[in-house]
């Protein structure tokens, strides 16, 4: 007991000594992040989603990047949790929705074969009282068909207060916006969510895809997920597809859509627009 306490105390001391630079780093990051919006350092990338059988472009996922003046392109994994914690996710999320709506309107005006764009919504943003009205006014302002916007949500975000979640989802659904369940199978998973929540699409998490052609358990999970989703009338998108063998496996299992480096990495808006224009020619 006594020994354990001493060991614990030692660990705390070492940790605080070591974490001092990291702590400072976090504060700098936080103040930098506050300025990122005003200084227009946020970038939106789009990653293609394709039909598993034909490879045809069927949609895109919007992924946020931060072009930091000295650190270069910062991954959302490094700043979304912090933005969520300090509340900056609200204006940032709004910026993402605005940018997507503007891009969709631009494609429509150019007469390009527009595809739906999926936007990631974080917990705090989802539970923020203005989300539904924000989405509605953005679609109206830019004259966007609601079906061209898909919102990606995670189960953990809805698990906290399922009653409220169902209500928000129903309002979004009534508007005609599409809803996807992201990272399916990770974290707090419940089959009851699939029954209760009015979702259209299920995204199979990339952790199951990595070894899908080599690991029987992963293959079983992916196959069962696709079957179950289809019996519930949902579309399935497999994430993290990097190889032809994975695409083939998904095609055999009748997965609908896929996303991953094999088909295209997240790319700047202009590059994705060029891809869309190319589809129009084909
Ligand atoms: P996510 O929603 O699961 O997004 C998929 C992630 O997988 C992206 O990472 C994407 O670049 C990466 N990816 C795509 N294809 C492949 C592949 O074939 N192999 C591998 N290894 N990775 C692949 P990214 O862009 O770094 O985003 C990380 C996470 O940050 C996202 O995970 C999402 O949770 C969050 N995020 C990104 N943009 C936004 C945003 O606008 N709002 C919110 N709230 N969260 C965002
Ligand atoms: Ca996502
Ligand atoms: Ca995901
Ligand atoms: Ca098919």
From TrEMBL:
Domain EAL: from-to ranges: 26-280
Transmembrane segments: none
Signal peptide: none
Source taxon at top rank: Bacteria
Name by which UniProt lists this protein: cyclic-guanylate-specific phosphodiesterase
Species annotation: Alkalispirillum mobile
Lineage: Bacteria, Pseudomonadati, Pseudomonadota, Gammaproteobacteria, Chromatiales
């Amino acid at each position: 007991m006594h020994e354990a306490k001493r060991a614990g105390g030692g660990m705390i001391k070492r940790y605080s000594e070591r974490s001092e630079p990291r702590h400072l780093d976090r504060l700098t990051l936080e103040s930098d992040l506050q300025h990122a919006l005003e200084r227009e350092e946020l970038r939106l990338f789009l990653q293609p989603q394709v039909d598993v059988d034909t490879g045809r472009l069927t949609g895109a996922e919007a992924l946020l990047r931060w072009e930091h003046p000295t650190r270069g392109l910062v991954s959302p994994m490094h700043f979304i949790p912090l933005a969520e914690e300090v509340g900056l996710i609200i204006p940032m999320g709004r910026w993402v929705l605005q940018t997507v709506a503007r891009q969709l309107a631009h494609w429509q005006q150019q007469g390009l074969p527009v595809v739906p764009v999926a936007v990631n919504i974080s917990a705090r943003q989802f539970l923020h009282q203005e989300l539904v009205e924000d989405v509605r006014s953005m679609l109206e302002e830019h004259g966007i068909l609601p079906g061209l916007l898909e919102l990606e949500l995670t189960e953990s975000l809805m698990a906290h207060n399922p009653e409220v979640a169902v209500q928000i989802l129903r309002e979004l659904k009534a508007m005609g916006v599409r809803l996807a369940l992201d990272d399916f199978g990770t974290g707090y998973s419940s089959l009851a969510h699939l029954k209760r929540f009015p979702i259209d699409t299920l995204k199979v998490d990339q952790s199951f895809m990595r070894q899908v052609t080599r690991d029987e358990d992963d293959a079983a999970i992916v196959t069962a997920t696709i079957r179950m989703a289809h019996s519930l009338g949902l579309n399935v998108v497999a994430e993290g597809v990097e190889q032809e063998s994975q695409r083939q496996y998904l095609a055999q299992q009748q997965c609908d859509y896929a996303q991953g480096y094999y088909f295209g990495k997240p790319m700047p808006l202009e590059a994705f627009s060029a891809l869309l224009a190319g589809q129009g020619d084909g």
